[in-house]
Amino acid sequence: MDYRNLGASGLRVPVLSFGAGTFGGSGPLFGAWGNTDAEEARRLVDICLEAGVNLFDTADVYSAGASEEVLGQAIRGRRDAVLISTKTALPMGEGPQDWGTSRARLIRSTEDALRRLGTDYIDLLQLHAFDASTPVEEVLSTLDGLVAAGKIRYVGVSNFAGWELMKSLAAADRHGYPRYVAHQVYYSLAGRDYEWELMPLGANQGVGALVWSPLAWGRLTGKIRRGQPLPEASRLHETAQYGPPVDDEKLFDIVEVLDAIAGETGRTVPQIAINWLLGRPTVSSVIIGARNEEQLRQNLGAVGWSLSKEQIERLDAVSTVTAPYPYFPYRRQEGFARLNPPIV
Predict the structure, then answer these.
(1) Cα dihedral: 252, 255, 256, 262 (round 10)
(2) Secondary structure class of 328 (helix, strand, coil)
(3) CATH of residue 118
(4) Mean pLDDT of the chain
């Protein structure tokens, strides 16, 4: 397993990390992802550690805290061997302090996460969404206090817009607060919007990408193809409305190229889709999920080999889309591109 620094920080993370959204699954969304119990979770953690994957990502909102609880049970007795990433901000209840990133919410949600995880520190705490109702200075000063208290070690965000992240980084620099070193983002061959603004921002500001849903919400598993019905076992029947939008015709074009490259390499469609992401700028780690041992071992096979330059170019070509304004001039027009050369 290769390791990369997380953004501009000194924290080294594996290029593949494990997403624990399937742990303790309940409800219409997370129940469809999976319902891994503590015993099975411990086995999946065993396999990850054997392969060198030591970063495990979860969130308080995943099955109302059950994911954190199951992960905590699965890593019991080997806390020093793992890195824990969790997230907070999304609603955990109906009360006025049950959502957002106010000082009160951040302190309470951090304490709750520590209790559920059975640990006294969190390696990476990420804000699951931007809270426009709380000043960024309040958020950052609270995180600064939690870092100083030893309860969290690094801070990051997830699903921020470019201006939200840059505003926060500027405030951190202005006041000497900890900078966000990670941005957990949606990025896949079927969804390359991350490249338009967030990738250049991450490269410029030293914010590493932790990629969620690298298989486009299950659409790049190799089971969904043009002219064929959605498989009965697909979780998309229950969860499509929660995930990122994907243009079906574009998806089918991408899958056909993935199929061709799978035939050339002897690799699976998911392995190729994940491997492509590992070669993209600013990507620190790709978060893989699995409902069982077979899925996990297949996804772990995405590393240890490389696509050829020609294969990468084919995947780039079939998956590219025209960026919206104001990004497209910098990609298509020489004068604009000279001012800001593309990083991809």
Answers:
(1) -170
(2) helix
(3) 3.20.20.100
(4) 93
